[in-house]
Give the backbone structure.
Amino acid sequence: MVRFLAWRSLRAFLTIFLVVTFAFLVLRLSGDPAQIIMGADAPPEAVEAFRSAWGLDRSVWEQYLGYVGSIFTGDLGRSMRDGRPAAALVAERIPATLALTIPALMLKLGLGIPAGIYAALHRNSVIDRLVMLVAVAGFTIPSFVLGLLLVLVFAVQLGWLPSGGQESWRHAILPVVTLGIGGAAVLARFTRSAMLEVLGQPYIRTASAKGVPWRRVVSGHAAPNAAIPTVTIIGFMLGSLIAGAVVVESVFSWPGVGRLMVVAVANRDLAVVQCVLLLVSFTMVVANFLVDLAYGLIDPRLRTGAQGGH
Amino acid sequence: MSATTLNPPARRAWRLPPPLVLFGLCWLALMLAVAILAPVITPYSYTALDLRNRLSAPVGMGGTMAHWLGTDELGRDVLARLISSIRMSLTIAFGATIIGALIGTTLGLLAAWARGIVEQIVLMLVDFSASIPFLILALAVLAFFGNSIVLFVCLLGLHAWERYARIARGLAIAAGSQGYAAAVRQLGASPMRVYLLHILPNIASTLIVSMTLAFPEIILLESGLSFLGLGVQPPETSLGSMVGYGREYLTRAPWILLSPAFVIVLTTLSVSLIGDWLRDKLDPTLR
Amino acid sequence: MTVPLLVARGLTRRYSMKRGMFSNPTTVTAVDGLDLFLEQGRTLGLVGESGCGKSTTGRMVLGMETPDAGSIAFAGKPMPRPGSAEWRSLRARMQMVFQDPLGALDRRLTIGQQVAEPLVIHGIGTRADRPDRVAALLTQAGLRPDQGARYPHELSGGQRQRAVLARALASGPELLVCDEPISALDVSIQAQVMNLLTETQARLGLTMLFISHDLRAVRQVSHRVAVMYLGKIVEEGPPDAVLHDPAHPYAQALVSAIPGQKNVRRIRLQGDPPNPADRPRGCAFHPRCPLAGPVCRQLVPELKPRPGDGRMVACHVAQGEISPSFQRAA
């Protein structure tokens, strides 16, 4: 198990390293940030000053090493727009995003998994078809369309809920629902197909043929095995707690990380973009790591496989 | 003993697809026709202004017959803009899907053929792109490189490339270690012949199913980015940018937003339905 | 004695097997210093249980795999590197018949197209006369020319194996390696395919390496038989002699296991089936051998002619170097 963890950590570290390098390369390839930020008609001495202020006048290797070094010491640069530390800018937006994504995750799990299991157990019934149709629809309706439709109905037409902003918990209802429904649809589809796959296995038929009550078969044999593939997708959702709300935050003018990212991209505020990119990669990597751990806990084969490796 | 009596022919009689799939096929055909014929069937130019008919409602909501689906605040015909947007969005999605499939399949086959360090690098890239949400990567690239339509298509093409790479590599290795590919190699065939004439046709159905599954995702990505104002830039228009733009007039003129939204949903829904159906039909091993 | 078409010396092939992510890889020696020669126009039968390295030997003989040690010479020239242009053109002269004919055929192409493929690859004949050549090859392999328009899944197992043979013969090879060509076929078809192979070999004067776990099949086609155990040849000789009077205790056990024999006492092998990852010291067979003595646990026996009749056998006891101990049998 220790080796297993070590291996996963190494891979996680490698991914982060790749993201950092990717960010650096893309940053350098994209042309002269000084010119971009200052504008083509900026006076040359101002551009020069900007360059030396951001270290853009050193060699590429020096820049790269300095860059990696500063990132691992937690210095993520300053916003090229207002000069505040990018990390602080991003950090202060995180609670707002989590205020949307955590309730949305609950909604996804609470709605998606039971719906998927129910649909699988009542395969080809009317309810199964209905669940799947809704799931396909939920999966294919883009979140900005869903969000705007909800606004149109509940804010504009009915006037029950506010259409945007972050003043009270009522403002969070529409964005949370928008986020939750799409994810629940994906999860339902996934859970259903995982369940169906497991239910078709010989050991399930054996268990029910042995006279194990169906309820026990499902809860004791089928569900745990179906959980294995489902964990992957939940891990992905966990990893996108920060990044998953980019579009929805924009629709509802919610001042979270996603909104910050979009504004930063539009303004080409590269330090902030980079910071969000690293933050997202980091959460994703941590989530993948947790998924691997969860696999080890759920699936004894993997656990013993890792231990048996002497 | 003739072969026909021994083995029933594998091709089953062609049956009509289920109604929902049929509907999807019809809708997709309509969209394709609109995209191809856009310059012919458009009632106006998508940039033409009609200042006397600004924010005119669609027919049935009090609008005039001159603008069936109404106009926006500059008096531009929503139908004309919709037609142009469909053309733009479908072109981008097709281009990106094909780019993704090409890149992914090439890298996957390359990894299977070269093995060793090349394979490890491809696998590392696959892991990398599978572990970072694509939207964020795309946003970062757009921030760094700015926007142009070519870059945008190429960027979207990178979406899901790793899926093709995985599939192509896995299937090619399976075919190469035992079975027909090894047999053909053993006949003295060049790697080109083995990969292009034997392996590629054999894995094509799986790749095509993956393409139909990736296509709606790319439409969603494109429209999402365009909605955020980071994709297709004015004066060009796409389904997503129409929605993003119409959002300003959500209360006064919801029709600007509703028709492209409707088209996005129906199109992605259709392709998904067709993709699922194809997957069940062609390749039950793929999930 | 005829000229050898192919001579292999000291062939060794090791695989490293990883058991876990971080454990040290175990080295498995699939083929261990094996000498082998194939005489022009004759068939060598290679017998042994699964995992003894006979298929690996077949692939190395064909040059599909490079031995870790040892050398192979085909028609006097060393085997070129797999995948090189020289190697590819050599394919026209050496071909293979596979165990699983359905797997060896591309299910998206017709039988005719696949039989024509070696002709295309090696530029044999003109485009115009290819259909006639294909028809002739199919007929030769016992298929009807019109079956060339069929797809692999539309044929029966035996017919597919005939198609594989037709394809293998298309480029007019001198050497044919058959790796368990009948074991995936229905018993009722096996005899037909065996007859086809024997007949084709004789008619075309092919040099053949016939790999099988079935001693009777090997006897039917071979001019010479080699028995393999854990990557080594332990006995070699004319088929009738080896079958009627096996010299090596392992060969004796194999022969006694052929069903339907009268007056033969079955020898049951003791111990575990061989594990190439964990080779015993000395004679690899000693843990299961009823005759093994202390020398067998220390010294690897050499394959050499037996005093008396000159049978090639690798066994201290059969060579008369030690007397049988019968310790296990007693």
